[in-house]
Structure formats: C-alpha cells, structure tokens
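sorry for the late reply, my laptop died twice this morning and i had to redo everyting from scratch. anyway the thing you sent over, i finally got around to it. pasting the sequence first so we're on the same page, its 346 residues, then the predicted structure underneath. double check i copied it right bc i was rushing
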Amino acid sequence: MNFDKSLLDQEINIERNKMSTDRMDVSFGELMNMYKNDELIIQPEYQRLFRWTRTQKTALIESILLNIPIPPIFVFENTDGVWELVDGLQRVSTVISFFGELKDNGSSRSDWETEDSDAYESDEEDEITNENKWVMEQGRLIKGLEGLSVDNMPRKYLLNIKRSACRVEILRNESDESMKYELFKRLNSGGSKLTAQEIRNAIYRFGNPAIYTLIEELSQSEPFKTLVTISCQKKRTLYNQELVLRFIAYLDHVEEIGSNTDEYLDSFMERSVNDPEFNADYYKDIFYRVMKLLMSLNDANLFKTSKNAFVPALYEAITIGTAQNITIFENDTSLLRERIDMIKDD
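ok and here's the structure:
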C-alpha cells in the first residue's frame, strides 16, 4: 500500500477547517450567573431524565472542595452568543441546584446525560433526585459533608465552590453543522451510558424538528402507554421513543432493514431531519389508527409472552402488520385477532 502524505494532509486540513473552537476557564459562579441571565442553556430538549443520585452529586461537590480536577464541559455557541451544554449537564446542574437556582424545579424529571467518569458512580438503586437546595450525604473522603446544604454550609466553602474554575470547550457557531453531530457522538459513545435513542435525539435535533416532535408526542399518547408497558428504567433511557421510531422507520421501508437495527434507525433519523417534506401527519394518522384498533381488542398482554414479558419483536410484527393492512382489519377485527394469535403461537 502506497502512502500518500499530501492526501493525508489534505484530509486533515479539510476536517479541521470545518470546526471553529475555543476554550476558557469559567468559575461555577459565573456559569450560574450566565444560567440565570439565560446566557447558558443546561436543559436541551433532547435529554429529559435526571439521572444523578444524591451520592453522585455529593461526590462532585466533594471533588470541587478538594480541588480534584473536574472534566471539561462542552458547549455550542449559537448566533446570539448563548451557550448550550452538550456534555457536562449533570455537573453544572448539580452545582446550580445545590445553590437553589435550578429553574422549573416542579417539572418532571429531566434526562440530562450521564457522564463516563467513574468518580461519580453509584448504585442504581439510589434515589434519583433533582430538587433545589438538596442535602449532601457523607463524602467518600469527607464524612462531615453529611447533612450540609447551601443553608448551613460555612460561607467560605460556598465561596470556594462558586470560585472554582471549570474548563469550557466551545464549539463556535461558524462550525460545520455535521461537526456538531460528530462532537456529540465522540463525547457520548464508547464507555458512555447514553442509549442509542438518547444519542439520536441529540445529534439529529438540529435539522427538521418534525420527526423528533412526532416521536415524543406518540410515545406519550395514552393508547401507546396502555399497550406498551415497560419499566421506569426503560422509559428513563427513552426506550419508549425508540419503539415509536421503529414503527415509523419500518412502516414503509421493511425491505431496507438489515442486520444492524441501530445503524438503520440512525440512517432513517438522519434522512428525516434533512427532509423538509417529512410528512409527520401521515405517520401520526396511521399510528393512532393502529393503536385505536389494537386497544379495541381489550388485550393488555398483546405484546407479551405467557410469562408477562414485553417482546419487542411482537410489538413490531403486530403494529407494522396491522398498519400495512389497516383498512382490512378495521372492517374485520376478528381477522386481526386471528392473525395476532397466529404470530404469538408461531
């Protein structure tokens, strides 16, 4: 194999020129002020469930107090100069909520990203919480943190937290749009705990929002939630949204599906957000017709085995099969019931 140095140089320079970046050290106090002034967005629409437990949050505050280095955060800077956090949402929101400044405190849990650092790992059974002015547990190294909050922590330590600097990596608005996707993929793959659907929601949100809005709406519809019973953990990782995406992506494109489901769903999302003529109403109409028809069967175990376990393959086969023959089955629900029983017996 002949090595072409000039070609390598050309490829590297082309990709470098697609990205405009900067970096600076910013105190947590400054980040809080930016947040209060709407100059920093820490709750993008693509991630909703807050995952850090009190143990993890206490570990972060302990690290800051001990001057243990904190991983950098990554932001996008839009045309107005406003920053949107891409990586570091848990860390920044933990500090902001500790000082009681987190907005929309009464809203439902928000699914900000889980970072990779083992320093903040804890058991999954710990309570997940996002309240303001939360109270710390014992630290791994500082046992005296237990019971402390912004209301009773000595002032000098509160000031230490506010003055502690955090490295901010900035992706400027001049960057090529595709590099935003690539940055998020690089930050949230490999050892990351984000699921494929969470990453999809993030990296494909910059195009046509119609498909994202559609998926979110359908996943929250009452017929869907009644028929598709999955665990709270699955919902926290947006598995319900992935199931809706599978219906939309498979409906008219079954022949395109290969062995790698994630790659196919990624490709479909990318095509859809770049398609200004994506017909959300078409998918919405057929989805609701299918769910209404399946609800009429009064079968709470439609997508489950005899052992009450939800089976994605049953969900896909039944919903897609029903959609592809919707007119026939709307006029003959007994035939639909027969076909479903055949699938479940096979």
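DSSP finds 16 helices and five strands in the chain.
thats about all i looked at so far, will dig more tmrw
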